[in-house]
Amino acid sequence: MNATLSVFHTKSGFVVCLLTALGGYLLWTRTGRTLVALPHLLLLARSLMHFVGHHRGPKHHGEADR
């Protein structure tokens, strides 16, 4: 039980909780606008994950397996 609660004491845990609360608030109060913006937000998130994902990891494009 302590391991679960320790997630909320980290900076990233706080940010995740804050973003979840903000998303819930926007979905609850501004449902129409949130649902209209959702496809754009998903495309933006996909692009950001693609950009960040290519700068990490053991191999880059074109490298041979070792």
Shape from CA axes? flat
As residue ranges, the low-confidence spans are: none
Distance between the termini: 42 Å
- How would a textbook summarize the main sheet? none
Question: Descriptors for this entry?
Answer:
66 residues; mainly alpha
Compile the SSE list and pairings.
Blueprint lengths: L1 H5 L4 H19 L1 H23 L13
Helix pairs in contact: 2-3
Q: How would you sum up this structure in a few lines?
A:
This protein has helices at residues 2-6, 11-29, 31-53.
Description of the structure:
With 66 residues, this protein is mainly alpha-helical. The protein has one domain. The protein has three helices and no strands. It has helices at residues 2-6, 11-29, 31-53. The longest helix has 23 residues, at 31-53. The termini are far apart. 0% of the residues are buried. The model has no long low-confidence stretch (mean pLDDT 79).
